[in-house]
Amino acid sequence: MKRQRHYLLAGALLMGMAANAATPAVPLSVPSLEQRGGQALPLQAYWYAAEAPGARPAVVLLHGCGGPYDGRGKLSVRMRDYSALLNQQGWHVLVLDSLGARGETELCTQRIGTRAVTMANRRLDVLGALSWLAQRGDVDTARLALLGWSNGGSTVLAATNLTHAEVAQASPRPRAAVAFYPGCEAELKRGYMAAAPLQLLVGAADDWTPAEPCAALAAAAKPQVQLHSYAAAYHGFDSSAPVKLRKDVPNGVHPGQGVHVGGNAAAREASRAQMLAFLKAQLQ
């Protein structure tokens, strides 16, 4: 109970600090490594610059299957809150949109295996973003990180697995990677070899992207992967939205029966504190 109160207080403090540290997002275009007609596919992106001197670490934010926007077409609360929190640490933030350039607005209602935007596409997006960051004079290329949620968390795994040839050949590589409630089955089946220290943050009650494959991946991965699992936490536990059943999602542990999505206050604050501690240890 004392530890839970500690995380709740720490998380509230962190998010309060983040709100005060928010900087305006600068829209820009970032080239994916995917080629279309002999040209790099341009991705819509948003740059949150750290208000700190010199070359700074940078974190790439990778959205879930719903994309990076809210219902009004603005960057979601999650993207804005985490960007502000990371800015507070003196780190730049790059929010990447992998859907818009490919004519998609969401993937959640598309069955896995039929989705228009695949992990192969998103892996090329991440590698392109890392290359783009390496060309900026205000970025410390040796201190880059990836942070993703759900489908974006799966992208973190796909973009840091050295068994993929393009990942093994990529330069630069991230210094650290964090995945919130990713789908771990594909990379577990393939065999995961981490290109960077990895932290997995999963909900024990998640019936969309279950925790068990992630626990198995963490146990088998080389080098060691850090795993935190949160009791009674569903998919999207780091939000403040109430838990609801999404019947429009055809995937999940029980296909056709829908999936539960929503926040868990204890898991939200604990995961944010643990995420930040992990990134600090790797990027400072």
From TrEMBL:
GO terms for molecular function: carboxylic ester hydrolase activity. This is Dienelactone hydrolase family protein. Keywords: Hydrolase, Signal. InterPro entries: AB_hydrolase_fold, Dienelactn_hydro, FrsA_esterase. It comes from the Bacteria. Residues 44-281 form the Dienelactone hydrolase domain. The keyword Cytoplasm does not apply. It comes from Paucibacter sediminis. Residues 1-21 form the signal peptide.
